[in-house]
């Protein structure tokens, strides 16, 4: 999926020209070309960073060779050898087997039986737990799998007190275990009547497919040692009102858990739309702009700086594109600037409500005859969420996108904390500050920037192992960000700096 070179690519910018008010017009005229410059930090600090790679990255080279409109972001990261090996282990046949096994329980409705060994949500719960524990058995003690239950009192779509149970597998990080990344799918299912707990509700696409993604990632990653902690979850109660995910998010929040990112995979099983067209190499990623948990004070700051497109969830979505939109996954990540689809909602929303960065993966175009439908034939057309309407190689590629983002998040440094733009003095330059991370392999930082009308970061300035940097560009004219780099050359997500007087 590499960009197609043109016969006369845009000449690359001179990496030895420091961005300034004089050069910015020439730089931005290249319509998204990557601009990199030498560190302004002392030579000793800059030397600790892999500066050769920063100045001449594969992303930069492909960006310069690609026609306008198809360039990858300047911040794109090529997958490491370790990550490529991991992605190759993701198995479409295993994903198909998981989906078909979940379908075999007849219905997985949240209100269905919980004590039948063969049918209902309880049987599905017990099978998922057994599978997760089998993965954990090969982890050398790093992974645990458990049930996370509570009793939901009568509420919307819950007529009587009902036990809701999430299945949670946790792979503990070996270096920074306090940093947590979550990936989930929901294992409950439904038919046309959301209160029908007895009819067959196969739920192959919605959402055995998402559970299969989370379980396949758990299987592949259990044998590895991520630096940070990764949680693989199959949650219940989604169709009744996001109950399981809300419980999990609230437990994380009450425990003070540093959840730095959460992805839900919901309806990722098919590449075919309702008109029969197929798009098997695109996955949508829904990411909100204005944070759901935003306070009035934060809203006032956002309005003053124009940060509507720079929420933590939008930075997370950019990171997914940086790491998961490439030939190693075989997928294009289409970021959608919305929290979710019209009249729909997913398990990322309770995490957003708790102030965590979160986003939702969903197939490129849906076929609603195979979602939330009674299984039937009507007018010669088959209705129902059946496995024969799934595209399992497509779901495997979705799993690879998830894996690329999650593994890089877990191995790279965290997004810098306390990123600030100093605004005490009115100047035509920009001074940025941030707090140094605690990762033992931290090498330094990069300042990134873009025009205010650009959706992706377009320019990178390596600045070394420092906690402040001044750029000879006006903070009034462009957006800035800061990201960390480790000694292996992995970059973490970008932090959007807030004003500090």
Query: How many E-type strands?
Result: 17
Q: Helical region count? A: 14
Write down the Rg.
Answer: 23 Å
Mean pLDDT: 89
Q: In terms of structural class, how would the helical and strand content be classed?
A: alpha/beta
* Largest sheet strand order: 1-2-4-3-5-8-6-7
Q: Please give the alpha-carbon distance between the first and last residues.
A: 45 Å
Short description:
This protein is α/β, with parallel strands linked by helices and 501 residues long.
Characterise the protein shown here.
The model is unreliable at 1-17 and 21-69 (pLDDT under 50). This protein has helices spanning 24-28, 43-47, 51-55, 58-65, 81-88, 92-103, 121-136, 204-221, 238-241, 243-254, 296-305, 312-324, 349-353, 392-411, and strands at residues 143-152, 162-171, 176-186, 228-235, 258-265, 282-286, 332-336, 358-362, 376-378, 381-383, 417-422, 430-435, 442-451, 459-464, 468-471, 478-486, 498-500. It has 501 residues and is α/β, with parallel strands linked by helices. The chain is globular, with a radius of gyration of 23 Å. Strand 13 and strand 14 form a beta hairpin. The chain has 14 helices and 17 strands. The strands form four sheets. The chain has an eight-stranded mixed beta sheet, with helices on both faces. A four-stranded mixed beta sheet has the order 15-12-11-17, with no helix packed on it. Helix content is 28%, strand content 22%.
């Amino acid at each position: 999926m590499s960009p197609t070179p043109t016969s006369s690519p845009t000449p690359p910018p001179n990496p030895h020209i420091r961005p300034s008010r004089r050069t910015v017009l020439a730089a931005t005229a290249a319509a998204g070309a990557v601009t990199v410059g030498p560190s302004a930090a002392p030579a000793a600090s800059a030397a600790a960073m892999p500066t050769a790679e920063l100045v001449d990255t594969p992303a930069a080279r492909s960006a310069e060779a690609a026609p306008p409109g198809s360039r990858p972001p300047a911040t794109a990261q090529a997958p490491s050898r370790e990550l490529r090996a991991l992605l190759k282990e993701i198995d479409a046949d295993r994903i198909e087997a998981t989906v078909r096994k979940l379908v075999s329980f007849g219905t997985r409705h949240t209100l269905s039986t919980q004590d039948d060994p063969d049918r209902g949500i309880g049987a599905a719960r017990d099978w998922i737990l057994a599978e997760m524990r089998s993965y954990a058995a090969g982890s050398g003690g790093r992974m645990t799998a458990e049930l996370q239950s509570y009793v939901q009192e009568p509420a919307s779509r819950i007529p009587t007190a009902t036990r809701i149970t999430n299945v949670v597998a946790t792979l503990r990080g070996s270096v920074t275990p306090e940093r947590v990344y979550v990936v989930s799918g929901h294992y409950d299912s439904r038919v046309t009547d959301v209160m029908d707990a007895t009819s067959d509700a196969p739920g192959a696409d919605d959402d055995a497919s998402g559970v299969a993604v989370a379980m396949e990632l758990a299987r592949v990653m259990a044998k590895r040692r991520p630096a940070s902690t990764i949680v693989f979850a199959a949650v219940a109660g989604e169709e009744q009102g996001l109950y399981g995910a809300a419980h999990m998010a609230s437990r994380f929040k009450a425990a003070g858990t540093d959840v730095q990112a959460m992805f839900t995979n919901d309806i990722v099983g098919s590449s075919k739309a309702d008109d029969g067209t197929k798009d098997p190499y695109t996955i949508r990623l829904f990411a909100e702009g204005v944070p759901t948990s935003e306070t009035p004070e934060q809203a006032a700051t956002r309005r003053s700086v124009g940060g509507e497109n720079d929420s933590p969830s939008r930075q997370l979505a950019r990171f997914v594109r940086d790491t998961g939109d490439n030939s190693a996954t075989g997928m294009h990540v289409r970021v959608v600037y919305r929290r979710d689809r019209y009249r729909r909602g997913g398990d990322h929303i309770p995490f957003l409500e708790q102030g965590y960065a979160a986003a939702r993966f969903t197939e490129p175009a849906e076929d609603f005859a195979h979602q939330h439908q009674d299984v039937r034939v009507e007018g010669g057309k088959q209705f129902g969420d059946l496995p024969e309407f799934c595209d399992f190689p497509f779901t495997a590629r979705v799993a690879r996108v998830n894996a690329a983002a999650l593994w890089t998040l877990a191995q790279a440094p965290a997004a810098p904390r306390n990123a600030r733009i100093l605004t005490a003095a009115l100047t035509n330059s920009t001074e940025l500050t941030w707090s140094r991370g605690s990762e033992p392999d931290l090498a330094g930082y990069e300042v990134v920037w873009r025009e205010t009308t650009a959706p992706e970061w377009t320019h990178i300035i390596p600045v070394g192992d420092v906690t402040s940097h001044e750029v000879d560009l006006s903070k009034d004219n462009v957006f800035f960000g800061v990201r960390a780099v480790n000694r292996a050359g992995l970059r973490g997500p970008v932090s959007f700096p807030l004003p500090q007087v």
